[in-house]
Design a protein that fits this description.
28% of the residues lie in helices and 22% in strands. The strands form 5 sheets. Strands 13, 14, 15, 16, 17, 18, 19 and 20 form an 8-stranded antiparallel sheet that branches. Strands 6-5-4-7 form a 4-stranded antiparallel sheet, with no helix packed on it. The protein has a 3-stranded antiparallel sheet with strand order 1-2-21, covered by helices on one side. The chain contains 12 helices and 21 strands. The chain folds into 2 domains: 110 residues, 3-layer Sandwich (Rieske Iron-sulfur Protein), CATH 2.102.10.10; 259 residues, Alpha-Beta Complex (Naphthalene 1,2-dioxygenase Alpha Subunit, Chain A, domain 1). The structure holds FE2/S2 (inorganic) cluster and fe (ii) ion (FE2). The site of FE2/S2 (inorganic) cluster has 10 residues, from loops.
Amino acid sequence: MADFGHNATELVIDDKESGIFRIHRSAFVDDDILKMEREKIFDKAWLFAGHVSEFPKPGDFITRTVAGRPIILVHSDDGEIRALMNTCRHRGNLVCREHKGSNAEVFRCFYHGWIYNTRGELKGIPGEEAYSEAFDRESLGLEPAPRMHNYRGCIFISYDPEMEDFESYMADALPLLDNTLDQGDMEFVEGHFKYSMRANWKLLVENSMDGYHFAFTHERFITHFLPDVGLGAHAEGTPGPGSTEDNVGALPAALGNGHATIALPNANRASGAATPYLERYAPEGLEAYRKMLAAGHGKDKAKMIEFGSGNYLIFPNLMIIDGWFVFRTFYPTSPDYMEINGWACMPKEDSPELRKARLEWYMGFQGPGGFATPDDVEGLEGCQMGFKTHKEVEWSDISRGMNGNTKGGSSELQMRAFWREWHARLATGQHAVDTND
Ligand code: FES
Ligand SMILES: [Fe+2]
């Protein structure tokens, strides 16, 4: 087996002329590669941390691990949203140990009782007289994340103080995020999924944009779930991201800087993935919702917003799944293990009927007992087990559709776009010049 060590340049075969794209499987198992990913990707990216609807009022906060660091997202008493590093300036303990809370006036470290206000300022030290003149309380507030950007309620942070501005980082993915956020006054529904997989994090990037696996991995969704809820196995527009070449308008695209989608938003698409379900189970709520969208955006744009994009990736690890109203992030803790968070993001304008139907659709597919998540966990953990043979069987193939034979949702262009950026970051520390085929 080739030993790549710290040399990332040979991990990808990208032969555009012959239409061959391969990934060396050490990318999924090697500790040195994960170390490089942490330095060159996760520490130099805009990372999704949360949504303002999770902590809407002054005194509200959530805590979360973002790229391995504990973070507090807080709505401070001055009305500002802040992302603070959740570590006490005394001797390091987590200052806030709750997942979520409201009406907080202070955060008190339980270890020796140092007290910070919701702006992160250090306000109380038990026995402060024991410190010298040189001790400067003002300078010992909770450290903010080096960069934070609130984009229409989505909070992104970066650990790189020199990070390029958010809009340029987003490149052609920004209109897709806008299309998602145009669905209404968006909120993260209370409660979210936290789960883990014995699999490399990049397998979930691939899987979340993989139209090719749908009919096989999620066969029961098509043969059982859809008929059981009164939607024929071949109901128009379903199963969305699983659709193949014949789903009109399903055009995968590289969106620059590693962002990619399985299908661009398109007013001529037959429907969104959720459409038949919502039409059947929330007809009145959906009609009112469509009127609202059309009044705000015009008919064509309203359709584009309602039907959404195909699953899309904001590099490196924010996956937005319009067809099931999902935001999802995932981080590696080791080459063969990742921790995943999934949220339902829905319009506040929903009637109770429409919200109920959206949640059923979301849970039926994405939930822990749903028709996708357990199947995908099984699929990805199986790949990781297969990678035990990586010394004998060195390469994975991601060539599908590379020479234009497959333009539809089962192309693997969207994965190649991710891998090209991944490869450029590791090999050069820069964005890929071109992530397209
Ligand atoms: S570590 Fe927080 S008060 Fe000592
Ligand atoms: Fe899947």
